[in-house]
């Protein structure tokens, strides 16, 4: 290597070191919670440490190219027969002028022009807010303003802005957020396809003080349990005006989470909730925003817990709401059990006595729920050890019985047989290779299974080293269906807290799952044409198709010695042929859903869970 080239390498290295030192000094000497990385420094860091966020920033700029979006709008707009008026409602209180102007401009620069901007100032101490509002009101007749004579906080201010609204739909946004130029046109495009929708939300990202886009949140379609975990709808939400009038606008006393509260009340009044899987707004991050630090508005979290608690009461599923430690803005729901009804634990097995004993002993030692039975399905066991267990365990535990299942292994047929021989109102399907470690596991599962809208309740399954084996299943992930967060430590947050928070998924695994007997009966049990694979996936999808929501409950953790009792699925030609059969049956029934899991997002990867596609 020549001297010149060597010097060049040293020079690049020196620049990297200088940039890193600059970054470190910036972090060290900036007050925590208020640090803002300059655009120049961000670019330097992106070059040195390229990552998914770096790739996102490049990708989203292309996606939001104004000329491209304008061309698309010009092509689509003539096809839209329904062109409703949309009122953008914004409460205003002492916003940073630069960000306030940018927010207003993002509304007035929309491609779709049948709009009005309703601004309500809540006695901002800085006269600049009123000056800016008047400037835009004089400049554009679509701007409507009102100035409150006393400060009433954000709920009262939002209602004042609502009083100005004359549109068919209301779009709520903060005084410093930014709409993408195609935001309203995408909403109207959606309404032309789904005119019955009364609540609409979109994906989002964040924009900092240097106008750098970051932290995209690509969301699922309507997922009611996700909304109980946190306000995943976000800031910019569209509601039909008649619905807003019906629920009475914003409630005072819930300031800081007034938007969460109005969403919770709105979705109780309609089943027509739409999601647009595109980033249509940028949530502003700055030193006075909740997005920057949870310390900015601590009262918001108290208000959120009250909003959630009251929502549970209204819905007839009362419970307690707690902060999720280490993840402010997310909440843990603990439903009260209305009536204690019997749970039937159905366990299929063939010998494997060592594993089975671990499962049974852990159930009997670690179950606080007062009324349950164990139905053990003997599917061809031959060992003396199993015969001994089958004879003695029911004597020691009168709430256990053994049922002979003398036919070739067929998981679906076994579950159907187990249901015929059990007496419980709740059915708990359990593998013979798990270990129960929490005395409240069954109580928690029942508390969610009792709800009328719940289909199947799934839990967090852990490998013996406390990493994740199951925390929900995504359709089309690395095949027909794949587990998410496999190998992550159980206390990690995952994508937007998904590991540790309540979430709806299309599918949860039957290694440990519960549903009400009435749901099982309504769906006709499990499909015996799927003897080995995809039977639990199929059942969950049948539940979803019937209008139920399947839910992952992270507070229940169970150790799973995965597939210990069955070995490798393709250990013979016969096993492989069986796999092909099950796969063909399953994809024949559900192929259309494998292209778009409603509880995932089309912008996310089907190879690496919750990673962006960048297509």
Explain what the structure shows:
This protein has 615 residues and is α/β, with parallel strands linked by helices. It has three domains: 3-62, no CATH class; 66-323, Spore Coat Polysaccharide Biosynthesis Protein SpsA, Chain A; 343-594, Spore Coat Polysaccharide Biosynthesis Protein SpsA, Chain A (Alpha-Beta Complex), CATH 3.90.550. It is 37% helix and 21% strand. Strands 12, 13, 14, 15, 16, 17, 18, 21, 22 and 23 form a ten-stranded mixed beta sheet that branches. Strand 2 (115-121), helix 6 and strand 3 (143-147) form a beta-alpha-beta unit. The protein is elongated and about 90 Å long.
Q: How many H/I helices? A: 19
Distance between the termini: 39 Å
The poorly predicted ranges are 1-15, 25-36, 564-568
What is the third-level CATH name, the topology of the largest domain?
Spore Coat Polysaccharide Biosynthesis Protein SpsA, Chain A
Radius of gyration: 28 Å
Indicate the structural class: alpha/beta
Which range does the strand content fall in?
Answer: 15-25%
Query: How many domain regions?
Result: 3
What's the architecture of the largest domain, going by CATH?
Answer: Alpha-Beta Complex
Largest sheet: 10 strands, mixed
CATH superfamily of the largest domain: Spore Coat Polysaccharide Biosynthesis Protein SpsA, Chain A
Total DSSP E strands: 23
Q: CATH class of the largest domain, please?
A: Alpha Beta
Portion of residues within helices: 25-40%
Global outline: elongated
- Mean pLDDT equals 91
């Amino acid at each position: 290597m020549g001297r010149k080239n060597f010097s060049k390498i040293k020079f690049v290295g020196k620049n990297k070191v200088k940039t890193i030192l600059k970054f470190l000094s910036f972090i060290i000497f900036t007050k925590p919670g208020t640090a803002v990385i300059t655009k120049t420094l961000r670019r330097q860091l992106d070059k040195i440490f390229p990552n998914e966020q770096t790739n996102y920033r490049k990708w989203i700029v292309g996606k939001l190219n104004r000329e491209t979006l304008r061309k698309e709008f010009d092509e689509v707009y003539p096809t839209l027969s329904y062109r409703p008026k949309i009122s953008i409602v914004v409460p205003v209180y002492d916003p940073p002028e630069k960000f306030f102007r940018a927010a207003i401009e993002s509304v007035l620069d929309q491609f779709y022009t049948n709009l009005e901007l309703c601004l309500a100032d809540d006695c901002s101490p800085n006269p600049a807010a009123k000056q800016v509002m008047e400037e835009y009101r004089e400049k554009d007749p679509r701007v409507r303003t009102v100035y409150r004579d006393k400060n009433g906080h954000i709920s009262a201010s939002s209602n004042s802005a609502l009083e100005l609204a004359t549109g068919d739909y209301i779009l709520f946004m903060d005084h410093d957020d930014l709409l993408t130029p195609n935001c309203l046109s995408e909403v109207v495009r959606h309404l032309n396809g789904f005119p019955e929708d009364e609540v609409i939300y979109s994906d989002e990202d964040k924009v900092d003080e240097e106008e750098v886009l970051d932290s995209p949140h690509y969301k699922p379609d309507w997922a009611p349990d996700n909304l109980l975990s946190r306000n995943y709808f976000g800031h910019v939400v569209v509601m039909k005006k008649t619905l807003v009038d019906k629920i009475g606008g914003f409630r005072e006393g819930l300031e800081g989470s007034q938007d969460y509260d109005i969403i919770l009340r709105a979705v109780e009044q309609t089943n027509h909730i739409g999601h647009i899987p595109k980033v249509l707004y940028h949530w502003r991050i700055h030193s006075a925003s909740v997005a920057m630090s949870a310390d900015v508005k601590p009262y918001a979290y108290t208000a959120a817990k009250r909003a959630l608690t009251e929502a549970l009461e209204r819905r007839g599923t009362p419970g307690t709401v707690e902060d999720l430690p280490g993840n402010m803005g997310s909440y843990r729901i603990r439903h009260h059990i209305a009536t204690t009804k019997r749970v039937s634990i159905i366990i299929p097995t063939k010998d494997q006595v060592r594993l089975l004993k671990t499962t049974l002993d852990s159930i009997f030692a670690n179950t606080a729920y007062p009324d349950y039975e164990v139905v053990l399905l003997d599917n061809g066991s031959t060992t003396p050890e199993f015969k001994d267990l089958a004879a003695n365990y029911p004597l020691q535990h009168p709430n256990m019985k053994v049922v002979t299942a003398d036919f070739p292994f067929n998981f679906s047929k076994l579950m159907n047989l187990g249901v015929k021989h059990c007496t419980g109102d709740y059915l708990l399907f359990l593998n013979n290779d798990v270990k129960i470690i929490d005395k409240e596991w069954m109580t928690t599962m029942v508390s969610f299974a009792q709800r009328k809208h719940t289909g199947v309740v799934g839990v967090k399954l852990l490998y013996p080293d406390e990493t994740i084996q199951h925390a929900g299943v995504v359709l089309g992930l690395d095949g027909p269906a794949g587990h998410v967060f496999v190998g992550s430590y159980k206390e990690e947050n995952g994508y937007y807290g998904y590991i540790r928070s309540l979430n709806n998924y299309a599918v949860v695994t039957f290694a440990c799952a519960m549903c009400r007997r009435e749901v099982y009966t309504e769906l006709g049990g499990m499909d015996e044409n799927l003897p080995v694979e995809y039977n639990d996936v199929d059942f969950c999808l049948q539940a979803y198709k019937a209008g139920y929501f399947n839910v992952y409950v992270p507070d229940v953790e169970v150790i799973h010695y995965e597939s210990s009792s069955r070995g490798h699925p393709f250990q013979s030609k016969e096993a492989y042929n069986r796999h092909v059969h099950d796969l063909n049956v399953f994809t024949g029934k559900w192929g259309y859903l494998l292209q778009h899991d409603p509880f995932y997002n089309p912008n996310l990867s089907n190879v690496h869970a919750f990673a962006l596609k960048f297509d």
